Amino acid sequence: MGIKVDIAYKSLNKNEEELCGDKVEILHTEDSHILILADGMGSGVKANILATMTSKILGTMFLRGILLEECVETIAETLPVCKVRQMAYATFSILQVYDDGSAYLVEFDNPGCIFIRNGKIMKIPENYRMIENRRINEYHFNVQMGDAFILLSDGAINAGVGELLNFGWNWDSVAEYALREYGKTISAMHLAAAVSQACNDLYQYRPGDDTTVAVLRIGEKKLINLMTGPAANQEDDEAMIKDFMADGSALKIVCGGTSANIVARVLEKKIDVSVGEIDPNIPPTAYIEGIDLVTEGVVTLNRVLKFLEQYTRDDEIDEEFFMELDKPNGASMLAKLLIESCTDLHLFVGKAVNGAYQNTELPFQLGVRQKLVDQIEDVMRRLGKTVAVKYY
């Protein structure tokens, strides 16, 4: 099917608690992707331990292909029902999506999964069965391009209770808000951050419960070819451009003024510099027919790297971050493509040394551009992207 599975989550700790009572596990097998959200009873350390144990047990057993009945039986034996409250010590939701497009959803006492398809909220069929005296809802289905699935802890549907809202932000309200945000982005993290921010607003930044929003989105695999730097030997320019342009389905990005001039010369196209951008910190972009984005080199790539590094730190991702990504400058546009669209990145890197940024007597490996390429390669791999690098 060639699907891209994008998974992300945001959690809010209960006010004055250092640990979150919700726990998310994101796991990958050879042919599937698994998202688990566990909610421990109460808050603080005890809830965190309960949620962590539940998610780890479920994750380990699912990775080994153990049947749901055995997973729930293990949870039941490990975390019995509270005798005082007559409640489970932890609740959970599990979503597993296979590379062939088939999927499996399991829910136990968490708010129901919000399923968005083609701009509409889809009703998830009720298919309950009893396992170890626990009422479990199971759903087998096939995903489609553009589908979004949102798993919630109960803190999300209780946001604002007793303060801005008498009875909290109920499931329907969360779903309606998520649907509005769904149309604004293709990023799982962007959608999770938007819904989480709305919950925090309703709590007036003092969450009355641990609150987690976990999102899984289905998209297409997307290759980005990024070229930067001229080849060490000028006679290799044409071979470099030929390789760079070979895949007609790839988005093509050129970073660097010299690189852009080489591309324009080999392709026999002209360069038009953008005059619509005004950003004192980021050089302007340019346009070459057949190229999706043309930016300046080192300064822009350095800013892109900072965006990517920030994106790896979940606690620093909020609506303000995505507002920065939406700005019409070269660094923001490139970072947004790498974060939200790219599944595979092919880097075409010239080894010629630019005397404007480094001592020309130093080998290429010690150059500024090489360091940036190495760091971008590393952070993209950490973000789950497939990266290939070819030097010229």
Give the helix/strand layout.
Elements: E1 3-12, E2 22-28, E3 32-40, H1 44-63, H2 68-78, E4 90-98, E5 102-108, E6 114-117, E7 120-122, E8 128-131, E9 134-142, E10 148-152, H3 154-157, H4 171-182, H5 188-202, E11 211-220, E12 223-228, H6 237-245, E13 251-255, H7 257-267, E14 272-273, E15 286-287, E16 293-295, H8 298-311, H9 319-325, H10 330-341, E17 344-349, H11 368-382, E18 386-391
Parallel strand pairs: 12-13, 12-17, 13-16, 17-18
Antiparallel strand pairs: 1-11, 2-3, 3-4, 4-5, 5-9, 6-7, 6-10, 8-9, 10-11, 14-15
Tell me what portion of residues adopts beta-strand conformation. Answer: 25-35%
Number of helices: 11
Mean pLDDT: 88
Count of strand segments: 18
Q: What does the radius of gyration come to?
A: 24 Å
Spatially, the strands of the biggest sheet line up as 2-3-4-5-9-8
How would you describe this protein?
The chain has 392 residues and is an alpha+beta fold. Helices cover 33% and strands 27% of the residues. The strands form four sheets. A six-stranded antiparallel sheet has the order 2-3-4-5-9-8. A five-stranded antiparallel sheet has the order 1-11-10-6-7.
Annotation keywords:
single chain; 392 residues; alpha+beta; 6-stranded antiparallel β-sheet; 5-stranded antiparallel β-sheet; 11 helices; 33% helix
Can you give me a brief rundown of this structure?
With 392 residues, the protein is α+β, with helices and mostly antiparallel strands.
